[in-house]
C-alpha cells in the first residue's frame, strides 16, 4: 500500500486550490504527529526495528529500502495485469486487503491508546476494536459499493498518517530516511515510464479508488501521504527531547512548500510524481539536525 503515486489536477491550477491542497496535507501531518506522540509508549517497548532484513547500518538501510521498492514494483505490475484483463473484483480485493489490514492493526493500537488515556476503562475494548472495524467497513463501502470521495479521503488520510507514524517509530533512523529517498527515485520512473503510468492510464476511475485522497482540486496518492507524514513524525520521534517540536514543524513546512511547488508544476503537466521535491526538502531539514 505504500507504492508512491502521482498527483493529478482536476481543474486549472490556481493559488487558491494550491493553498487548499497544502492545508489538507498539513492537517494530515498534524494528525500523524498526534498519533506518533500518543503511540510512543507502545512502540518504544519493541526490542528492535520492525523491519531490518539487511541490518541497521547506512548500507543495510539502503538495501532495506530497495527491497521495499522492489515489492511495490511487483505489486503495481500485478495490479496492472489485473486491470488489463478486466479482473476488476480481484483488483479491488487486493487493494482492499492490503489497506484494510494496515488500517485495522494500526488503528487498533491508536484507538486502544486513546481509550486508555482519555476514556473510562469500560470503554477500552469497545473503542479499541470498534473504531478499526468501522474504518475497515467504510473502506469496504468506498471500494466495493460506492466511491464517496470525502469518506474515502478521510479514511485513507487517517490510515496514511498512521502508516507514516508507524514507520517513523519502528524503523531504524537510517532506514526511515532511506525509504522515502528510494521511493522518490522510483516515483519518477513509476509515473513517467513504469507500471504506475500504465495503472492510472488503464482505468483511472477504478485505479485511484482506495489508493488516493482528494486534496481540494488535486488527487494525491496514498503512498505520497505516507511519506509526507513519515518525515515529520521521524523528526518528532528523534529530536523532541533535545529540540522540542521545532524539527517536526520545519519538516512539515519544507514538505508542504515542496508539495505546493509540485502542484504548481501541474499547470504544465497532467501527471507528476508527488514525492521527489517534497521529500528532498524534508530530508534536508532532518539531515541538518543530524549534523
Jot down its keywords:
291 residues, four-stranded antiparallel beta sheet, single chain, mainly alpha
What does this structure look like?
This protein is mainly alpha-helical. It has one domain (6-290). The chain is 76% helix and 5% strand. It has helices at 15-43, 58-84, 88-118, 124-145, 149-170, 173-192, 195-202, 204-207, 222-243, 246-265, 276-290, and strands at 6-9, 212-215, 218-221, 272-273. A four-stranded antiparallel β-sheet has the order 2-3-1-4. The radius of gyration is 18 Å and the shape is globular. The two termini are 32 Å apart.
Biggest pleated sheet: 4 strands, antiparallel
- Total helices: the number is 11
Q: Got a strand count?
A: 4
- Order of H and E elements: EHHHHHHHHEEHHEH
| End-to-end distance | 32 Å
- Beta-strand level of the residues, as a percent range? under 5%
Provide the helix percentage. over 70%
Sheet with the most strands: spatial strand order: 2-3-1-4
Taken from the alpha-carbon principal axes, the silhouette is globular
Radius of gyration: 18 Å
Report the mean per-residue pLDDT as an integer. Answer: 89
**What's the number of domains?**
1
Which runs of at least 5 residues are low in confidence (pLDDT < 50)? none
Helix/strand structural class: mainly alpha
Q: What is shown here, in short?
A:
This protein has one domain. It is built from eleven helices and four strands.
Amino acid at each position: 500500500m505504500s507504492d508512491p503515486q502521482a498527483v493529478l489536477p482536476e481543474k486549472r491550477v490556481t493559488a487558491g486550490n494550491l493553498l487548499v491542497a497544502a492545508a489538507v496535507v498539513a492537517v494530515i501531518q498534524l494528525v500523524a504527529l498526534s498519533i506518533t506522540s500518543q503511540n510512543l509508549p507502545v512502540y518504544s517497548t519493541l526490542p528492535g526495528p520492525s523491519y531490518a532484513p539487511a541490518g541497521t547500518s547506512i548500507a543495510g538501510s539502503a538495501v532495506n529500502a530497495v527491497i521495499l521498492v522492489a515489492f511495490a514494483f511487483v505489486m503495481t505490475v500485478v495490479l496492472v495485469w489485473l486491470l488489463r484483463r478486466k479482473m476488476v473484483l480481484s483488483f479491488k480485493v487486493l487493494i482492499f486487503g492490503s489497506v484494510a489490514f494496515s488500517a485495522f492493526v494500526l488503528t487498533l493500537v491508536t484507538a486502544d491508546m486513546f481509550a486508555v488515556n482519555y476514556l473510562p476503562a469500560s470503554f477500552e475494548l469497545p473503542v479499541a476494536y470498534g473504531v478499526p472495524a468501522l474504518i475497515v467497513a467504510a473502506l469496504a463501502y468506498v471500494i466495493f459499493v460506492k466511491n464517496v470521495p470525502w469518506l474515502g479521503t478521510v479514511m485513507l488520510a487517517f490510515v496514511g498518517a498512521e502508516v507514516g507514524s508507524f514507520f517513523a517509530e519502528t524503523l531504524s533512523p537510517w532506514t526511515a530516511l532511506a525509504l522515502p529517498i528510494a521511493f522518490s527515485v522510483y516515483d519518477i520512473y513509476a509515473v513517467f515510464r513504469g507500471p504506475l503510468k500504465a495503472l492510472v492510464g488503464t482505468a483511472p476511475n477504478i485505479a485511484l479508488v482506495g489508493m488516493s485522497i482528494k486534496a481540494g482540486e488535486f488527487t494525491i496518492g496514498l503512498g505520497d501521504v505516507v511519506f509526507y507524514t513519515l518525515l515529520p513524525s521521524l523528526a518528532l520521534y528523534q529530536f523532541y527531547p533535545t529540540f522540542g517540536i521545532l524539527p517536526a514543524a520545519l519538516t512539515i513546512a519544507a514538505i508542504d512548500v515542496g508539495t505546493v511547488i509540485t502542484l504548481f508544476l501541474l499547470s504544465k503537466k497532467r501527471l507528476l510524481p508527488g514525492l521527489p521535491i517534497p521529500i528532498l526538502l524534508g530530508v534536508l531539514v532532518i539531515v541538518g539536525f543530524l549534523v
